[in-house]
Design goal:
The chain has 165 residues and is α+β, with helices and mostly antiparallel strands. The chain is built from 4 helices and 5 strands, in the order αββαβββαα. It has a 5-stranded antiparallel β-sheet with strand order 1-2-3-4-5. The longest helix has 26 residues.
Length: 165
């Protein structure tokens, strides 16, 4: 048996919105795996990493990726960041954010920044703090799968009624 039809049954069929959400989530998992591999390569592995969909006020849905280094993590060199912890968070609506405690910075990074760019953001925030005056590298480089994930996110937004980025 090759498959099962849901026609005439109590099972919900897979509609366009469901397929768009599934494709976007699968591609997001590929992006998360690439970012995770880069962080492992530079030996700055977060304590927690999660991806998923969350509901926003007003009923919209947002795909997200969250990387968290807990307070006291050995890789957090700046005392304030070490005390508060460090979070890099991505959403398909906002892009990348860097948090330490209540302080939040929007880094100069492409929506689907190349994993080495994300690794540099994390490492730089851990060593220099999130509001340092250092020169930052060009954050416009995109992940190799950005075009495919971007198209899937556009389709997801269209079918889910999300305001375009």
């Amino acid at each position: 048996m090759a498959g099962k039809s849901t026609r005439g049954s109590s099972l919900l069929p897979l509609g366009d919105a469901t397929l768009a959400a599934l494709l976007a989530a699968l591609l997001l998992d590929r992006y998360a795996a690439a970012v995770s591999a880069e962080l492992g390569e530079i030996e700055f592995v977060p304590d927690a990493m999660e991806t998923g969909t969350r509901f926003e006020p007003g009923g919209g849905q947002e795909l997200f990726l969250r990387l968290e280094w807990l307070p006291g993590h050995d890789g957090l060199a700046v005392p304030a960041v070490r005390a508060e912890g460090l979070t890099l968070e991505w959403s398909h609506i906002v892009g990348w954010l860097v948090h330490s405690g209540a302080d939040v910075v929007v880094p100069d990074a492409a929506l689907l920044a190349d994993p080495p760019v994300v690794g540099h953001l994390a490492m730089h925030a851990s060593v220099c703090g999130i509001r340092c005056g250092c020169d930052k590298p060009d954050g416009t480089a995109c992940w190799t799968g950005a075009a495919q994930l971007g198209a899937a996110l556009d389709s997801y937004d269209e079918r889910m009624g999300v305001t375009p980025r």
